[in-house]
Amino acid sequence: MTDKLLEVIGLRIHFLTDQGDIPAVDEIDLEIEKGEILGIVGESGCGKSVTSLSIMKLVPSPPGKIVEGAIMFKGENLISASERRMREIRGNEIAMIFQEPMTSLNPVYTIGNQMRETIKLHRGYDRKRANQHAIEMLRKVGIPRPEQIINEYPHQLSGGMRQRVMIAMAMSCDPELLIADEPTTALDVTIQAQILDLMRGLNRDHGTAIMIITHDLGVVAELCDRVIVMYAGKVVEQGNVGAILKKPQHPYTKGLIQSIPHWNNQRERLYSIPGNVPSPGEWGTGCRFAPRCEFLMKKCLKQPPELKEVGPAHHSRCWLSS
Amino acid sequence: MAEPFFQVENLKKYFPIKGGFLGREIGVVKAVDDVSFSIQRGETLGLVGESGCGKSTTGRALLRLIEPTAGRICFEGKEITSLPQEEMRKMRRDMQMVFQDPFASLNPRHTVERILEEPFIVHGIGDRKERKKRVGELLDIVGLSAYHGKRYPHQFSGGQRQRIVIARALALNPKLIIADEPVSALDVSIQAQVLNLLQDLQKEFELTYLFIAHDLSVVKHISDRVGVMYLGRLVELAEKEPLYQQPKHPYTQALLSSVPFPDPDYKKERIILKGDVPSPANVPQGCAFHTRCSAVMDQCKIQRPKLKESDPGHFVACHLYDKI
C-alpha cells in the first residue's frame, strides 16, 4: 500500500453563485499509484476538470470552495498545505497540462524564456544550464531544431508543437505525477497519435504517473491502466480499462460506450442516452442518472446507491449491481 | 446516366495574402485547390480531413457564402456559380447549411419561434398564422415541444440548440443540407441523439447531405461515400467500406490508423506521421503529401497526381496507383 502516490478522499467542492451554493464535485474518492496511468472520463459538467484543478489547488476561490475532503500526496494533505508549499509542489512534483496550449503559454515571451523560468525556479540552475536543460527537454518531446525553436514565440508554432512544448515544460522538473486535462482534444488525430505516443513513452521511461482527463474512450483504451467514470459530480464506475470498456456495469458507462459509432460492427442507428446531462444543482435525491436510465427502479429515485464492488478492483454505483 | 444531383468541378478558392508597404498581394493561400466530386440524390457524402485542409471552405464555397475563385457547381443540372446574388438567394431555399457552433448561429435576442419564423419571412412565405403552425411542426420534427418556441437560445443545452439549428435549416424543405461539423461541439451521448435525428430526417424528407467532419468514426457512421482532403485537395474518394477497410492513399492510411479505438484488446499497426501539416500558403510542389509520405518517389516531388479511378468507384490521387 506504500505505492500510493495520490489519494483523494471524500472531496467536495462547491461553487458560490447568485443562486446559492452549487455543488460541482460530490464526495470523490480516487487514488493513483506510482507509475500508473489513470483516466477520468465523463461529459461536460461532470466535475472532472474541477477535480483535477483542485489537486493543484488551482480552483479559483471564491467562487470555488473545497467544502470537505482530503488530498493526500505522498502522505501530505495538500488541502492544508500553505501557498508557499504548493508552489514547490506545482511543477516540481505535480505538473499539469491543459487542453488549449495557446492559452497556457505566455504570448509575449519566447519558449525558452518560459521554460528557463520554470527550470531556474525549481531546479536552481543558472541561465546557461537551464537553457541546456530546456533544449534537451524539447528534443525529448520530439521537437525538431530545438536550438532555434527555443527562441521562437508560441504563435510561431503549430498546435501540436505547442502541446509538445507544454509537455516539455511540465516534464522539465521530472514530476512524479502529470495531470493532463484533455491534452489532445484540440488536436488533429494524426497529431493526437504523436502526443499519446509521447505520453506513453514518458510513462515508460521515467515512471511518471499520469492522470488524464478526457471524454474520448478511444484515448482511454490507448493509454490508461485504470479508468474512473464520472457523472454529475460523482464517480459512477471505476476499474481496469479492460473491465470498464469490455464489461461495463453501470448503465451510464454502457450507454456511453454504445453511443460511439464503431467502425467494425456498424449499426443502422446509434444507441443514444435520452435526455441531457443535468446541470449541477439539479441533481435531485436518489441516483443522479435515474432520469435517463432505462433500468429505472422505484428505489433509484429515493435513495442514492453506493459504490459497490462488482468484480476484482471494479466498482459500480448502481442498485442493479447490489 | 442521369445528371448527378449535385456536381462540383475543379472548385478553387484562393485567399490572397496582403502585405508590404502598399498592401500588395504577396502570396496566396490555396484553401481549396481543384476539387471535383458529385453527390447523388438522397446520398450522404462525408468529407474528412484535418484542420486547415479546406473542408469547411469547400462547404461554404458550395453555397457561395464565400465566392469560389474558379470552378463549376451544378445543382440539379443548373449551374449556380454564375447566378446573380438575388437568384442565388432563392436557390438557397433548396440548399441549407448547419454549422458547428449552435450558439454562434442563433441570435441570442430572439426567441426560438422568431428564429424559426425568419426563413419564411425572408422568402415571403405564408401569413402569420401559417408560419406559426409551421414553426410548431418544425419543433416537433426535431424532437422539441411547441412550448420551447417561447424560449431563448441560452435556455437550451448544446444538443437542443443544435436541434433548433437543424429545424431552421429544414424550414423551407431544402433538398441539400451541408452540415459543417454539426456534432463536434456535443457530448458523446448527445452526439448520438443528433446523428440519429439527422438520419431519421434524411429518410423522412429524402434529404441529401454533405457531411463535413474531422471525426472519422462519425463520418463512417453517417456517410455512404467518403472523401478525404489534405491541404485543399481531395486525395481519396470512395464508398465508405472500401475506404475504411482498404485505404489506398498513404495519407488516408495514416489518418485511419491514428484513430484510437475504444477497445483495449484491439491492436493495430499505427502509422505515426512525422511533423505537421505544411501551411496552405506554402504547399509543397508536386504531391502535397510528399513531405510526410513514407512511400515517396522522385515523381511525387515534381508532378501533382490526379484523382483517378483505381478500382470501380474508388478514386485516389497518388502516383503509386498510376498505371504502368
Which sequence of strands runs across the widest sheet of chain A? 6-7-8-3-9-10-12-11
* Average predicted local confidence, pLDDT of chain A: 88
Structural class of chain B: alpha/beta
Radius of gyration of chain A, Cα only, in angstroms? 21 Å
**Overall average pLDDT of chain B:** 89
Describe this structure in words.
The complex is a heterodimer of chains A (322) and B (324). Chain A is α/β, with parallel strands linked by helices and 322 residues long. Chain A has twelve helices and twelve strands. Chain B is an alpha/beta fold and 324 residues long. Helices cover 30% and strands 24% of the residues of chain B. In chain B, the strands form two sheets. In chain B, strands 6-7-8-3-9-10-12-11 form an eight-stranded mixed beta sheet, with helices on both faces. Chain B has a four-stranded antiparallel beta sheet with strand order 2-1-4-5. In chain B, a hairpin with a 2-residue loop joins β4 and β5. Chain B is globular. The mean pLDDT of chain B is 89. The chains are: A alpha/beta (322), B alpha/beta (324). At the A-B interface, α7, α8, α9, α10 and α11 of A face α5, α6, α7 and α9 of B.
